[in-house]
Q: What sequence folds into this?
């Protein structure tokens, strides 16, 4: 194959982006892989082909726990977010009058643009012992003493769900609205009840969109550090939190790198599980 | 609309707006704890953040990093999109895959990889290293958005321009870029919003000069404070203003 | 299964726009009726009212003798063939066609048998396990028809069912639709804006305009003796000749017209291109007189000519003349028209 002028020119345009990705993404990734096989002796780093870090994952309970906690939180968040977001997207798409839809949609995702750190902090305000929810429940006579809501797994899940409900409403709404309206009419015309229409027509047709949104939720949730760190307290740690502990206090880069690769492994497994529904090219 | 729908909609909006509402309301608190009862309104905490040198410097840094890294990401993304969409390149599917790949990896891992390399090379951490990281995460987005909008319509216009004697540079500058302006602008603003708000990469890759989310994070360690509410509300307001502006002007013609 | 349809005094508004005005219509059991009109005339709105997708602000809809005005689409003995077909893309053709029976709780074996039977009826018996996206437009149209007929509706509603097909396919599907209707005997109500399509298949055409029924009747009657100027113009090409009523006598540029005046004041005389003939004046003919040929072209079944009559030099008539002779430009022909072919309406 000869390189035509056209091909050379094409490479010329693409080269800067390609080099940037190679230098600042692929190379660091390879170095991180190598780092995960290194080991620490005291404060010095020993390169080599050690499997200490991966062995530690199997042996040390707190590392195991972190993986379990991360998975539990992520799965809960994904399922709850989809279950809450779908009806909301449905109502906006099919119950809100056409001319209000854009406004209602915009309003329902506006807090999405709150700063990422600030959003978790805001939930802390709401869930604190002296916070809005406790004060409101006491005022309503539902409880006598403030209950602990912040610094729990409940708070972490709430913070996550809040964020992902907004993300999913957007993706599911986009899916629902692109269905030709005659699908619903045709189903009803042929005798289907509202539930049958949903079960046999709308749900199967929106499943790829739901699964894409759910996968996105899974990936973003399991890799997040801020939300569990601010809202979850210190009783249980997620994988990203453990990684940050290794980087900070202990400066154990090899273990951090190994944990990061494990996290990627989990995401890859999730991708394979979701793969039959995913249309990532359509994001 | 049936009663149940309205009830669900209201409940959802309460949930969605509860934290933002509490954030904004207690930024006008007069006491020093941002919890009920509300005893404002007072603007003292806004005055406090505006006179807080560290915070204002961090805000400026965030803006700087966001604008510069987005400009780089959009330029690189446009180049790659143009090169791949307009020239038959061997292995272009692989190249596209490689360019999109960072989108599938969590920010924490990208930051960690860069941190390890920077430390191995003995380089210092600064706003520049954070900016480099932000380009890595925003480049796939910019590339994907611009690549997706490169249709046959532009290609025909480019052919016509070439036919009329324009060289490659003029084709790009006079035809392609103006025709793709909506996509380029959307990519740029999305990139700015993401970079402006990004925490973990900035946290790992900066040291003395930090960005706003990192500064807010360090303020947060000393507990709840109306000052945090004030800066949070301010950042929210700016973001909303940008979104509303985009919605009403730039994106209006795209429907 | 088949049933009559009765529409009584239906009115409907979209905001302040009156989409249907005092619509009353009786359709016999087993009749093939087309609703014909330009876009925005209310024909699709009326079909939605029949199907139950739209509750009219006023009036009643009866199917057989049951009042269906407030009954949901699912509970009506009607089914619809949608303009975009609305085939479910995630189901095979068999599952699409069997969908209505499945919703009615019929077992798999019976509904598959019925689906296969319906697919065979529309000539797609061998494609039952295909998906809609594997089909051509014409084939999708047939599946939509089979799906709507599978539940044995009493009335089938078709919303521009042939609109998305190219002309040739449309003509052959018309014949097929008519044949299928004869076979199943169901009442068909078919919306279209194509008057040739309407004439080809309908037992009766209902011409609509601006939310109103302008005319209804068998195709030949509507074409030859339309009840309104709008119906006349919509059913095909038409020469419009200004006329006037004075003292009970109608006159135009070509002399007196032996017809009673429908109104006083300015009138319009309508004349189909094929009603203009070369010939001699007589009592029951309107004598247009000598006319100069501006141009003429051969169309196979006829010669289409633009003619300037000497009695009205600023008028251009379109005529379809016998194909055996192609006149040249500036030839002069002596033209007449049978009075029975003339239409006479008040100037709108």
A:
């Amino acid at each position: 194959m000869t390189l035509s002028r056209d091909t050379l020119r094409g490479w010329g345009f693409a080269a800067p982006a390609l080099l940037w990705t190679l230098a600042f993404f692929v190379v660091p990734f390879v170095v991180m892989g190598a780092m995960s096989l290194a080991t620490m002796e005291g404060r010095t780093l020993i390169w080599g082909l050690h499997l200490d870090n991966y062995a530690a994952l199997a042996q040390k309970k707190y590392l195991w726990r972190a993986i379990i906690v991360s998975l539990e939180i992520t799965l809960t968040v994904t399922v709850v977010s989809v279950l809450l977001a779908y009806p909301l997207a449905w109502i906006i798409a099919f119950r809100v009058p056409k001319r209000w839809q854009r406004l209602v949609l915009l309003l329902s995702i506006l807090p999405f643009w709150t700063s990422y750190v600030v959003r978790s902090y805001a939930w802390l305000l709401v869930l604190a012992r002296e916070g809005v929810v406790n004060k409101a429940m006491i005022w309503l006579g539902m409880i006598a003493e403030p209950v602990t809501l912040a610094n729990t797994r409940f708070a972490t899940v709430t913070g996550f769900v809040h964020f992902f409900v907004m993300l999913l409403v957007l993706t599911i709404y986009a899916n629902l609205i692109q269905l030709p309206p005659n699908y619903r009419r045709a189903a009803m015309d042929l005798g289907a009840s509202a539930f049958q229409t949903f079960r046999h027509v709308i749900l199967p047709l929106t499943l790829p969109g739901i699964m894409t949104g759910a996968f996105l939720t899974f990936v973003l949730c399991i890799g997040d550090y801020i939300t569990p760190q601010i809202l979850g307290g210190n009783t249980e740690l997620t994988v990203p939190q453990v990684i940050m502990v290794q980087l900070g206090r202990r400066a154990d880069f090899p273990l951090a790198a190994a944990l990061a690769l494990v996290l990627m492994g989990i995401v890859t497994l999730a991708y394979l599980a979701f793969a039959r529904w995913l249309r990532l090219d359509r994001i | 609309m049936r009663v149940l729908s309205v009830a669900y909609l209201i409940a959802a909006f309460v949930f969605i707006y509860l934290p933002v509402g509490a954030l904004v309301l207690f930024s006008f608190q007069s006491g020093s704890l941002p919890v009920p009862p509300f005893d404002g309104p007072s603007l003292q905490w806004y005055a406090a953040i505006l006179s807080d040198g560290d915070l204002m410097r961090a805000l400026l840094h965030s803006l700087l990093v966001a604008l510069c890294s987005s400009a780089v990401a959009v330029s690189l993304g446009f180049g790659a999109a143009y090169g791949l969409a307009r020239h038959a390149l061997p292995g272009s599917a692989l190249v596209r895959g490689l360019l999109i790949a960072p989108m599938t990896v969590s920010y924490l891992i990208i930051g960690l990889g860069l941190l390890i390399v920077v430390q191995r090379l003995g380089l210092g951490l600064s706003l520049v290293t954070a900016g480099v990281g932000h380009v890595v995460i925003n480049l796939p987005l910019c590339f994907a958005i611009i690549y997706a909008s490169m249709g046959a319509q532009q290609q025909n216009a480019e052919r016509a321009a070439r036919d009329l004697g324009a060289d490659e540079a003029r084709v790009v500058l006079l035809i392609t870029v103006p025709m793709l302006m909506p996509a380029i602008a959307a990519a740029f603003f999305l990139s700015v919003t993401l970079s402006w708000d990004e925490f973990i990469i900035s946290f790992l890759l900066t040291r003395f000069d930090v960005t706003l989310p990192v500064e807010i994070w360090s303020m947060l360690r000393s507990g709840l404070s109306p000052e945090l509410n004030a800066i949070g509300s301010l950042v929210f307001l700016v973001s909303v203003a940008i979104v509303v502006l985009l919605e009403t002007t730039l994106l209006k013609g795209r429907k | 299964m088949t049933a009559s349809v009765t529409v009584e005094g239906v009115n409907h508004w979209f905001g302040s726009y009156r989409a249907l005005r005092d619509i009353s219509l009786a359709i016999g059991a087993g009749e093939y009726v087309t609703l014909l009109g330009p876009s925005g005339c209310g024909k699709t709105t009326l079909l939605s009212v029949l199907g139950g997708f739209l509750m009219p602000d006023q009036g009643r809809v009866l199917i057989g003798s049951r009042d269906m005005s407030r009954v949901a689409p699912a509970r009506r003995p009607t089914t619809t063939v949608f303009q975009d077909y609305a085939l479910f893309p995630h189901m095979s053709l068999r599952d699409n066609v069997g969908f209505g029976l499945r919703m009615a709780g019929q077992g798999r074996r019976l509904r598959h048998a019925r689906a296969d039977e319906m697919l065979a009826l529309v000539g797609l018996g061998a494609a039952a396990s295909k998906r809609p996206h594997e089909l051509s437009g014409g084939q999708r149209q047939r599946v939509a028809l089979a799906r709507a007929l599978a539940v044995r509706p009493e009335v089938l509603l078709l919303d521009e069912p042939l609109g998305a097909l190219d002309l040739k396919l449309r003509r052959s599907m018309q014949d097929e639709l008519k044949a299928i209707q004869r076979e199943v005997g169901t009442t068909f109500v078919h919306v279209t804006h194509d008057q040739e399509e309407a004439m080809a298949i309908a037992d009766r055409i209902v011409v609509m305009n601006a939310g109103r029924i302008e005319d209804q009747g068998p195709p030949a009657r509507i074409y030859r003796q339309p009840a309104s100027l709008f119906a006349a113009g919509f059913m095909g090409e038409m020469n419009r000749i200004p006329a006037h009523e004075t003292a009970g006598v109608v006159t135009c540029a070509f002399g007196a017209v032996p017809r009673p005046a429908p109104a006083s004041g300015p009138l319009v005389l309508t004349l189909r291109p094929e009603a203009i003939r070369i010939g001699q004046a007589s009592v029951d003919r309107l004598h247009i007189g000598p006319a100069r040929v501006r141009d003429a072209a051969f169309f196979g079944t006829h010669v289409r000519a633009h003619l300037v009559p000497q009695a009205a030099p600023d008028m251009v008539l379109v005529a379809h003349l016998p194909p055996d002779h192609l006149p040249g430009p500036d030839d002069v022909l002596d033209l007449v028209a049978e009075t029975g072919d003339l239409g006479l309406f008040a100037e709108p």
About this structure: Strands of chain A lie at 39-41, 44-46.
